[in-house]
Q: What sequence folds into this?
């Protein structure tokens, strides 16, 4: 790949996909899908151009993966939510690589609105959700559009597993 930034981004997307598939038990010890036709498999999406559908699909989440040093989380979150709508998924989140750390230490960012919708679907109070999944809150000024919730990718994987188990997300291929 000629563009080193593109190669880094692709590698990060693949690492996130592989980590989630392994955590959720969707691949065997060689990294091969247990059931290649399972709609719950976490997959990298094909690039769609103007109607981008996100980097990684982890039903019911679209993951916008970012491997950059300078964070622009509120902007990324707006992008993730648009891409989730394009893909027909209810939630769009951002996965930001943590420098010099293992994949599971990456940070997953939610808008407060998305975090609240997921929390309500799981039936948790704000305190319980924050404690269970290691959530931290970033409040930037009075503009609530710039507020967001973050948690480690490891905890997001647990949240994803719990969400799928609790809400009975269909195993049908999307």
A:
């Amino acid at each position: 790949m000629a563009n080193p930034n593109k190669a880094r981004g692709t590698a990060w997307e693949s690492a996130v996909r592989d980590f989630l598939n392994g955590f959720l038990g969707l691949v065997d010890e060689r990294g091969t899908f247990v059931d290649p036709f399972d709609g719950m498999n976490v997959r990298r999406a094909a690039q769609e151009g103007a109607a981008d559908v996100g980097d990684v699909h982890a039903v019911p989440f679209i993951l916008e993966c970012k491997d950059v040093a300078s964070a622009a989380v509120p902007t990324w979150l707006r992008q993730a939510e648009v891409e989730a709508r394009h893909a027909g998924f209810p939630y769009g989140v951002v996965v930001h690589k943590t420098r010099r750390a293992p994949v599971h230490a990456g940070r997953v960012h939610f808008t407060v609105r998305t975090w609240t919708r997921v929390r309500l679907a799981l039936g948790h109070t704000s305190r319980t959700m924050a404690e269970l999944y290691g959530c931290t809150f970033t409040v930037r000024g009075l503009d609530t559009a710039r507020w967001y919730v973050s948690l480690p990718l490891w905890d997001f994987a647990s949240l994803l597993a719990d969400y799928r188990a609790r809400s009975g997300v269909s195993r049908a291929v999307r």
